[in-house]
């Protein structure tokens, strides 16, 4: 996988992981020709340790544990090859992890990529952008401007 493909995959996997489960499920149900798939690793929830750095550059420390669900699937590409898809999502949603893994695999198939990107990823990106803009607009209403007046001495 070249650098551009790796960057694109990282982007769509982030989009799938951050997507609201209900919207992802709705968009996936709207896909016309869903591929057959087999589970390589059934969806399972577990804990991961989240590590952080003091001041973003200091020494690492354990921030706490987080629940994550993972899943891996195998999908047959239209050219007969086999593609693997993987997903890690926050929380305990087995369904979200499974759908995200299937979408990841299908997006790697050049014959299906554009259609699935348009049907699933683009709407998720638009919803994420809209939610971010609403949050910023709400925060802007409570913004306080501080200024300093120069004292003449």
Q: Could you outline the blueprint of secondary structure elements for this entry?
A:
Blueprint lengths: L2 H16 L2 H9 L7 E17 L6 E17 L5 E9 L3 H14 L2 H31 L13
Antiparallel strand pairs: 1-2, 2-3
The gyration radius over C-alpha positions equals: 20 Å
- Would you report the number of β strands? 3
Helix content: 40-55%
What's the number of helices?
A: 4
**N-to-C order of helices and strands:** HHEEEHH
Segments where pLDDT lies below 50 for 5+ residues? none
Structural descriptors:
4 helices, 153 residues, 3-stranded antiparallel beta sheet, alpha+beta
Describe the structure.
- It contains 4 helices and 3 strands, in the order ααβββαα.
- The chain is α+β, with helices and mostly antiparallel strands and 153 residues long.
- Helix 1 (3-18) crosses helix 4 and helix 2 (21-29) crosses helix 3.
- It is elongated.
What would a concise description of this structure say?
The chain is an alpha+beta fold and 153 residues long. Helices cover 46% and strands 28% of the residues. The N and C termini lie far apart (67 Å).
């Amino acid at each position: 996988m070249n650098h551009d493909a790796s960057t694109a995959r990282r982007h769509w996997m982030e989009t799938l992981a951050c997507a609201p489960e209900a919207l992802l499920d709705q968009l996936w149900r709207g896909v016309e020709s869903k591929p057959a798939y087999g589970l390589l690793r059934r969806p399972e929830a577990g804990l991961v340790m989240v590590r952080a750095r003091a001041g973003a550059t200091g020494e690492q420390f354990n921030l706490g544990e987080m629940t994550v669900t993972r899943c891996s699937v195998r999908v047959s590409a239209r050219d007969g090859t086999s593609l693997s898809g993987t997903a890690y999502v926050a929380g305990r949603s087995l369904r979200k992890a499974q759908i995200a893994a299937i979408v990841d695999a299908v997006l790697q198939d050049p014959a299906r990529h554009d259609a699935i990107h348009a049907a699933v990823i683009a709407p998720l990106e638009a919803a994420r952008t809209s939610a971010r803009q609403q949050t910023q607009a709400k925060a802007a209403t409570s913004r306080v401007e501080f200024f300093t007046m120069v004292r003449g001495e």
